[in-house]
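Dear V.,

Thank you for sending over the compound details. I've combined the ligand you provided, adenosine-5'-triphosphate, with the protein sequence from our construct and run the structure prediction for the complex. I'm sharing the raw inputs here so there's no ambiguity about protonation or stereochemistry in the SMILES, which I know was a concern on your side last time.
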Amino acid sequence: MKVVEAIDLTKKYKRKSALDGMTFTLQEEKITGLIGRNGAGKTTLLKTIAGFFRPTSGTLRVFEETPFNNLKVATNMIYIDDEMDFSSYLTLDEVLNAAGTFYPNWDKELAFRLFDYFGFGPNQFHNALSKGMRSTFNAIVGIAARCPLTIFDEPTTGMDSSVRKDFYRALLKDYLSHPRTIILSSHLLNELEEILEDILVINEGKELLHLSVDEMKEYAIAVSGPTAKVNEWTANREVIATKTITDAHAYVVIKNNLNHQDHENAMIKGIKLTSVTPDDLCTYLTSKTKGGIDDVFNRN
Ligand SMILES: Nc1ncnc2c1ncn2[C@@H]1O[C@H](COP(=O)(O)OP(=O)(O)OP(=O)(O)O)[C@@H](O)[C@H]1O
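Below is the predicted structure of the protein with adenosine-5'-triphosphate bound, written out as structure tokens.
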């Protein structure tokens, strides 16, 4: 079943298009990583899916309904970000005790086990937590709520690296025993990659790629070697990025539609072919210039 279906989805803030004609579907019971640079439109997309924002145009269906102000969507969804707030009158353990009222699948026991593991105390208040602890508490709520649609917008803000790893592991373990549709937005794809099934890459409000992690690993290939040979070899291919190593040595990332013959031919010519990680691919795809930061230093 399609949990999210967007067709030509556009969201404007006054005249600025934050989402610019996005078309994609997210299937039930998958973990999708929403990857994009600062200002790419991730939060806008997630908040529109969550029903907080009304799209400017296009179609958006969540659980086959229009999500804006929709009760069915609201009761089947949780949206976690670092701005999530809880009552300043309730202590953290009171929040966990009360959460079952809002989330039908709430696993209180799991919530308290995570609460103890991450070192929270019963008399603490949410607004007195550090940034990283607040994100960790919000993440506990997001996991234990077990909502059919669980949205995490940059959930690891402020978490240190071991807490981030524990969070991803806890999320994956709970997902495997209770599959649901999860969307996680982040800039840090390499940390997330192990738990993701699909990746949706967006840039300037448009979807660039929507592939499984395995497809993403095969999507591009790097060609490196003597500049003249690399340039000749890549001349009629789809170039994704170029990096100048030295004047004599080039590194070019191309779309990987090479066959066996191409691989042999590259070897004969002294050209090296190497894989490109999904994280690097996202960086190349969303880079403002094909040469990335190198272009700032290359004025010729
Ligand atoms: N309330 C707003 N009013 C006007 N423009 C906005 C508003 N919110 C976001 N934008 C613009 O819309 C675009 C997308 O913003 P959005 O916050 O969705 O991106 P993002 O990918 O979540 O960014 P980040 O990774 O930095 O959080 C940006 O250009 C941003 O400046």
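A first observation: The CA atoms of residues 224 and 251 lie 4 Å apart.

Warm regards,
I. M.
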